Amino acid sequence: MKRKMAMLLSVAMLGLSLTACTNANDSSNDLKASSPPDSSSPESTLSGDDLAFYKFPEPVDVHIGMVVDPTDKTLPEGDSVSNNQYTRYLKEKYNINVIVDWTAATGNDFKQKVSLTIASGKLPDGMVVDDRSFMTKAASAGLLYDITDLFEQYQSSQVRDIMASTEGRAMENASYNGRMVSLPNITVDTDGVHIMWIRKDWLDKLNLPVPKTLADIEKTAKAFIDNKMGGDKTIGIAGPSKNTFPYATFLVSSNNMGGFDPIFGANDAYPGYWLDNGDGTVSYGTTTENTKKTLALLADWYKKGLIDPEVGTRDNVGDPINANQAGIFFGPWWNGGYGNGDSFKNDPTANWQAYPVYSDDNKWNVHMKTTGSTYTLISKNAKPDVVKAILIMNNALVRDEATFDLSVAVGWYPLRNVMAAANETEYEYAELLKVLKGETDPEDYNKPNSLYKLMYADAKKVKDVIKPPYDDLGVGNFNMTNFGDFQRLYSIMIGDRPFATIPIDKKVYSVTYNQTPTMETKWANLKKMEDETVMKIILGQASIDTFDKFVKDWKAQGGDEITAEVAELLKK
């Protein structure tokens, strides 16, 4: 309970601190208020899901900024970011025209574009950002539409149930000064549980067991390299790119493909998280001795050539994985189906399997995420019909995602911001096994507006994708003809198997997943210092002894002040 309250109160503290700044400025910075429905409009007689899926009588143009994955090649010839199955669906079903004002590549390019857009004060009607600080900056500058009332009117029953499943946390995350100013991302819990993905076919060829501990992983990575399992350029362990991170943090607590999160967890280290010490005090995980110990290990592995020599500098974390040069990487459940799709296309026998990484005393330790980490921002200058259209676009995605041709990446859906029940993947894992074994029928899951929005569609296709025997699934059990279906079901049945079937010994939550007042002015510099120090140590560009100086400097330059603020959250 303390943890939940601390997380919610941190948002309140942030709101209070920024209220003073906002009130001191010109009143033009006030949030744009929701407009009540026009009593003369056709939708004024509608309610519930009839309103949530309303088709406008006249076209409504929605201007958006959009992140794109430059490595994705799934759009059919002739389609584009502004003309594809998703944009055509929105036009045909709801009379919504999506106009893409700008795009930016995933990673730093998109972050820089969002920063510049907010600084300019000229937002498109909608854009999805990947850091809550972007939302609070835009809100404090008076750039966002207050969607509180319209969201209450236009959310679908499905969205309402998913929001309710978070017990108010999603609404808190999406709000500023007590008003809803964004659509929150709500993801499955397993997005925050990072596991080891390993080439089981390589293990089998070398007659090696699945590695469990850090010592086992070191031996296995060396064996992969020595035996050139991926050719002359074999990489034992893939790592983060220049656009990703060595570990997830309290601000970005999930979906860290290529990070070293399980390595830290095996040493009971949780860098980037605010840790409750159990005595009324807190510590920042990056500054602990266990983190120092793990960085020394990673530096040793890098020096021995076990980690990708281009770690931290590659453009895309998935390149050596998809080229089938790497034997091990770390990430969440979906990384082994969606994150490495080209690996299977290049080698259909690539048997990527997912496992926990254990401590020396056989404990599985993981850090847990917040409800979600992305936010749909809507400009204060958007017309009411445009705001309604964006809410309807969100409802439609939640309800109809499974009906699309998923061989085309769903990331092309305009303003896609995932909303899912926290236990969706574990539920599906168990229920899909029942379907495969004949214990249930797909029609048993034909429940419109179900909390488990993709279950029925997955149940109908699972036997087309997965072949028996079902007790020890590997890549050979899967049919890749419909590659989108393969990716989803492989991710669930292989990637989520550890979280769905193996008890976790220690779950670590951050005391807060949001910024405190002092972070507003000092966190960027502290984080830059942290990132540079961590990567320099791993790459051998700085000795492990520099860690102690980093901790001292971090504390002196605002870390102690911020730590005190976070500690106060435990007392509330």
TrEMBL record:
Gene3D superfamilies: Periplasmic binding protein-like II. Pfam families: SBP_bac_1 (PF01547). Residues 1-24 form the signal peptide. Residues 34-46 have a biased composition (Low complexity). Keywords: Cell membrane, Lipoprotein, Membrane, Palmitate, Signal. Residues 27-46 are annotated as: Disordered. InterPro entries: Bact_solute-bd_prot1, SBP. This is Extracellular solute-binding protein. It comes from Paenibacillus nanensis.
